[in-house]
Design a protein that fits this description.
single chain; about 260 residues; mainly alpha
């Protein structure tokens, strides 16, 4: 194992611990990350669920959408953390330490995945209490988790890129997009019920195959096309965002 690899691993672990501590100290953000998924799920299942006709129990239909919405929102919050680091002199202090450069961004990404695992667990646990009864087997659940992992990692690298480009205030606006975009998809109502002028976008936007892949796997039905569509969308987006963030971060460190 090379010295650079060891430095990257040790630096990443330090940054993950740092981000976890910052998350724990941000009580309002911690509460929001737990309360927001619960509030969204309760609102749609308890308040609107009786009026929805999706051909199945609405809780079974909407849970994957809430998981994806909250995972995307949590990943987008990383943009604020990165932008804050860039504007408060934190990165300048890291330059004086023997820290492998990309470990800073890797720490943000890993912490985002861990945070989203917790928020997704909250959604799933509450959904069972509301009557969610998935039919998928262990392999289906693993596939759904893998799809979510690809989505969250790609979204977090996109958020890192935005955090390097924007101020903390502007970066916080990116979270609005991730709250709004899932509503124009198959997440909360069937696409066929949407107006014709927006139906094409809802069918072909990048969040729809993620939601459909998670939904069909949790419910035990075939979802190979949606899984491949998810990979076709989010792997290139994630790789491009990762490379862009790495280049921008390297240039920033040289200033």
């Amino acid at each position: 194992m090379t010295t650079s690899t060891l430095n990257f691993r040790s630096g990443t672990s330090v940054m993950v611990v740092r981000e976890l501590r910052r998350t724990a100290r941000s009580i309002d953000g911690l509460i929001l990350s737990i309360v927001l998924p619960a509030m969204i799920l309760l609102s749609f299942v308890v308040i609107f669920g009786g009026a929805m006709n999706t051909g199945t129990k609405y809780v079974d239909y909407v849970v994957p959408a809430v998981i994806v919405l909250c995972a995307g929102y949590g990943a987008a919050n990383t943009a604020v953390g990165v932008a804050t680091d860039m504007t408060t002199g934190t990165i300048d202090r890291f330059r004086t330490l023997p820290t492998y450069g990309s470990a800073v961004l890797a720490g943000h990404v890993i912490t985002s995945v861990l945070r989203n695992f917790v928020s997704s667990a909250v959604v799933v646990g509450l959904s069972f209490a509301l009557g969610f009864r998935p039919a998928g087997d262990a392999a289906d659940w693993l596939t759904a988790i893998a799809v979510l992992l690809v989505f969250v990692v790609a979204m977090t690298w996109i958020a890192c890129l935005l955090g390097l480009l924007l101020s903390p205030e502007a970066a916080s606006g990116s979270t609005f997009l991730m709250i709004f975009l899932p509503y124009i998809s198959s997440g909360f109502v069937p696409v066929s019920t949407l107006p014709e002028w927006i139906r094409g976008f809802a069918e072909h936007q990048p969040l729809t195959p993620v939601i459909e892949a998670v939904r069909s796997n949790l419910m035990g039905s075939a979802a190979s096309d949606d899984v491949w569509l998810t990979l076709a969308w989010w792997v290139p987006l994630g790789v491009a965002a990762h490379l862009g963030a790495a280049v921008l971060f390297r240039r920033t460190r040289k200033r």
